[in-house]
Give the backbone structure.
Amino acid sequence: MPSIQKFLDIIKFFGWPVACGLIASLLYLQNQQLQQTSEQLATLRLDRVQSPPPGFAEVISRAAPSVVSISATSVNIESVERTAEDQLNLYLGERASLGSGIIVSEQGFILTNLHVVDTLFDAFDTEVTLYDGRRTPATVIAYDSKNDLAVLHINMDNLTPITVAENPTLRVGDIVFAIGYPRRNIGQSVSLGIVSALNHDPDGSQGFIQTDAAINPGNSGGALIDRQGAFVGINSSILSESGSFEGIGFATPANIAIAAMKEMVSEAIAQNSGYLGVITGEALTAQSSQLFFGVDSVRGMLVESVDPGGAAERAGILPGDVITRVENTPVGNGRNVMREVRNAKPGEILMIEIFREGQLIELPTILGFGQAIVIESKEV
């Protein structure tokens, strides 16, 4: 019994310190967990303070450089006169239109509405003005009448393509901005609104976006962007009895527009030859070579002019240069140049050799869209 009592006394002697130690350890661990939780919450609060939603000005600045002004002159039949039983006279008239467009590629492709550049004879005289004020002629390379879309191409560097929303999940009530160029020569304009309704086709795909963001005449072809500045739709039309905006506008969803654009560009490239953008004059002979350059050995096509912003100018070809070789083909006359260019497609790179100031220079040249012009060579 004394031994048992002694054992119990020992337990009592050491038990309280052990118990106190355990309690202290538990309290310490709980305190550490509380500190970690507090630090995590503080970090979250700090992140929220340091990363607020982007302001409207920042959102608009992301997309504004990608929206351009388009002016187009189209030719249409104004009247028809019958002068004989088997003869009609058609009287043509020009109609100027102004709309907007969206840069969708660094390669110079611009998406807009077909009704901005529509014409009976496809006789477009189209010019694009960029956000930074640069202006350049544009070529209408393809159109999709079903979706009221058209694709233009410009030969220009330092372009800012718009950011396309990835898997956009628009909801009614989401904030959107409409960017375009109203027909009052006031420059680029932005309006704010919400998604008013979303129409869906029978297959479940999105049909159109309805918005109360103002889409005024001239804004057609401009961009509808979301709260992050990403492209979600192309402004297309309004529902109005007065002809002015009455709070109901429609935009073609970006995924539909971009898919149609890619198909149109692919077909345009397949159906068109490359475009160099030069007017050539004489095929040099020994006599003309001696006359122009002081030696009789220069052969090739003399460049008389280059299109502003065209493939040749961007490659560095100048009036007065002599095109001596295209790829591996020596240039004997304008037909050689045309044949090599026509065998290539827009966007392809040709190595063009020129003669300038006594030197032969090779220039890699990215072909564009257009129609080749060659003046028949003359013997001198």
Remarks:
- The two ends are 138 Å apart (CA to CA).
- The longest strand covers residues 67-84.
- Helices lie at 2-50, 56-63, 114-117, 254-271, 286-293, 311-315, 334-342.
